[in-house]
Design goal:
mainly beta, 7-stranded mixed beta sheet, 4-stranded antiparallel beta sheet
Amino acid sequence: QVQLVESGGGLVQPGGSLRLSCAVSKSMFSINRMGWHRQAPGKQRELVASIIRGGSTNYADSVKGRFTISRDNAKNTVYLQMNSLKPEDTAVYYCNVWGRKDYASGFYDYWGQGTQVTVSS
């Protein structure tokens, strides 16, 4: 089975920083894209940042210049460094992987359990 284990969420003051981590099962056959989505109360889940196999990244306009997505291939882990946090960044953040669990399987969207990020004074 595929497991995505998230960590790093918490409470931070406006202007502060947090670093989210997501460790993906090392048995995963192929990972084409890793990313982070978030969902605030009463709002639709949205893409925050993603990184593809070749290393190219994509960010939501609302977080450009403040958030940085990165990966450690040896650890099968993706990170989200969040700086200059704003109250509107408050949400549950979900790790996401688009890939294949084994050679016989097709591509599938895998999700972490979510981690709460709260930005408040």
